[in-house]
Specification:
elongated; mainly beta; four-stranded antiparallel beta sheet; about 270 residues
């Protein structure tokens, strides 16, 4: 690596000197990041953060807000701002799109106009057309996991999307991760349906690795006009229901019964 040597006596300064400073800084950072992450080309500095803003039942779309973050691509930091996207489902691909364009045009002594800077911008979109390069955010690893792998620390299993078909107007996420002796399931769903329901309520059908039938020992809770009601989730022939008999108190429809629960099932 070349380093500048500074001398007294009015040392002349050239543009090449500035290029050396820039390249040294970029090369040092790139080598450090490659050592920490095992040379992966593109990755996230932290997990993507998102939340549901609204659900349009008639159009079968979900509007989600995705918060700003930063990725590293070929040793270069690429940031993006908050964005709201309309999705047909949470399985829709979402891309980190990168645009690079030359800016800061200046007139040189030879009369020619040339760009003197390159601007790199990132943004999230369901459409990657027009981007200089793009990456599906679901395929991008997170830096902390790469570092753990690089230094030989076994990473904890990550949650995966369970394939489900929702009932009674419910939408949201149903995730699972496979552990050595059990499956851990995380359910975070709510309904927009105001149709009155009698008896237990069907939440979703599922495909995948989980058992065909189960009853959770973990309890969920819902607030009513007279206090808190608890319930379990049960599955029979891969249909999951909330084991609570509606109506009770002021809870008589799916929209009044959001489900948020984490539970374990033995293999």
């Amino acid at each position: 690596m070349n380093r500048l040597k500074f001398n007294e006596g009015g040392q002349p300064m050239y543009v090449d000197d500035l290029e050396t400073l820039q390249e040294n800084d970029a090369a040092s950072m790139r080598q450090l990041l490659e050592a920490l992450t095992g040379g992966v080309k593109a990755y996230l500095l932290a997990d993507i953060k998102a939340e549901i803003v609204s659900v349009d039942v008639d159009k079968s779309t979900t509007t989600g807000k995705f918060y700003g973050g930063t990725a590293v691509v070929n040793g270069e930091f690429v940031a993006w701002d908050d964005v709201t996207l309309v999705l047909q489902s949470w399985d829709d691909p979402i891309y980190l799109c990168i645009k690079r364009q030359e800016t800061d045009n200046r007139v040189f002594e030879d009369g020619q106009t040339r760009a003197c800077a390159v601007e790199t911008k990132g943004y999230l979109s369901t459409d990657k057309s027009g981007a200089t390069e793009s990456y599906c955010i679901y395929d991008l690893p997170v830096m902390k996991k790469l570092v753990r792998k690089s230094i030989g620390i076994e990473d904890e299993p990550s949650y995966k999307q369970l394939k489900v078909t929702f009932c009674n107007g419910y939408t949201g996420t149903v995730m699972y991760k496979e552990m050595e002796e059990m499956y851990r399931i995380k359910v975070n769903i709510r309904s927009t349906s105001n149709e009155e329901v009698t008896g237990s309520i069907a939440l979703f059908y599922y495909d995948g690795v989980l058992p065909d039938a189960f009853v959770t020992s973990t309890r969920g809770y819902v607030q009513t006009e007279n206090g808190v009601q608890d319930y379990s989730l049960s599955s029979f022939e891969r249909t999951v229901r909330a084991d609570v008999s509606l109506p009770f108190d002021d809870v008589d429809r799916p929209s009044a019964l959001p489900i948020k629960m984490i539970f374990d099932l033995p293999k």
